[in-house]
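We now fix the convention by which a protein and its fold are recorded. Think of the row as the fold of the chain written in a discrete alphabet. Here is one such record, which you should read through line by line.
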Amino acid sequence: QVQLVESGGGLVQAGGSLRLSCAASGRTFSSYTMGWFRQAPGKEREFVARITWWRGSTYYTDSVKGRFTISRDNAKNTVYLQMNSLKPEDTAVYYCAAAYKDGDYDYWGQGTQVTVSS
């Protein structure tokens, strides 16, 4: 069982930055691929970024490439999402998720609100 707790959301002006953190419980964090997803009002939840468990390879949705960076600190059981050059369309609830090795995302956090004002 893995429990995930996100933090770092808030209100920021367009062009600003935020860093989200997701702290995970458990002793096998390094065996989990970690992902960030977001859900804007009236829209479906969408993939934002992920970092794999084995090589730490990273993947991003096109709309955030070059602006967002996902990273992980296995010693701290934490995954981060550095968000720069934020746009109003980045406004959403951001969720952290964990997938054991190459499996499905079975564990989800409660979400953290990010609001970008124009």
